[in-house]
Amino acid sequence: WYGFDTWYFFPTFQMNTARLLVAGTVVSITAYVLYKKQTKPKINDCCPGQAHGYLPQSSNYVPLGSKILSNSTTIYVTGSGPKAIVIFHDIFGLHTGRHIQISDEISKHGFTVIVPDFFSEQSEEFKGGLNKYKERGYGGGLLRFLYLLVSGKFKKFQMLHPWSPICSDIWYKDVVPILKSSGFKSIGLLSFCWGAYPAMHVSGESGIDVRGSVMFHPSFDKCSDNFREDKNYIIERAGKVKTYVISTSMVGVVL
User: Fold this and answer.
1) d(CA 15, CA 238)
2) Whole-model pTM?
């Protein structure tokens, strides 16, 4: 009975216990999912069975390009080709995953690759993206993502980055001057997940002749809904640019 009395009359103890149970359940389910993905990959998963899996950037990788401090953000530039590709990073930020390494690989094929950091000027809680400049790996990144989703901070972070005025300011004040002053023969866009949101807006804007856009598992739809934008209008304007979409089902669609 003493145990029952302690549980019943001390609400703080109840709350802490409940939190531990919830946390334990989330960790157990996540561990199980990760184990199943590693042991029995399925073709219809987000990444098909023949995929390489999570490929983090090597800790000793030496970038080929350099970071430029622009008016309001940091821009990674690599390569010196006559054609430019602008890469739009995912919601975890430019400095995580393999954004830098992928940019360098593309530059080796004769392109100048420009990667603006859309999250550099943020509060300390979100500075640099959801991962805050840290490479957390697949498991750690997934746990943090679940925490941010449950706590409501994921939606809060998204709402900090509308196209106008946040993303558009970075595009027009930091990226466009570089593109115009360099006199590139052509310009293409490459985006990952969240990055498709600003990339779609860029495709529909005037002033820069974008020849093509490639989007990997784009999140434009939900991001645009969050800001209550006229999606049909944005898509119609962006339709002038030939776009190739690699969706989560690994199906390419030309818009």
Assistant:
1) 50
2) 0.74
Round to whole Å and give the CA distance between 195 and 141.
Answer: 18
pLDDT 10s digits, 3-53: 434 433 444 545 555 566 666 666 666 655 554 544 443 433 445 556 565
Angle at the Cα of 87 from the Cα atoms of 84 and 89, rounded to 5 degrees: 170
What are the CA-CA distances from residue 53 to residues 28, 39, 77 (Å)? 21, 12, 27
From residue 94, alpha-carbon distances to 64, 91, 152, 157, 250 in Å are 15, 8, 22, 15, 23
Q: Are 235 and 243 contacting, i.e. CB atoms less than 8 angstroms apart?
A: no
What's the rounded Cα separation, in Å, for the pair 129 and 93?
Answer: 4
Contact 202, 189 (CB under 8 A): yes
Structure token pair of residue 59: 């800790």
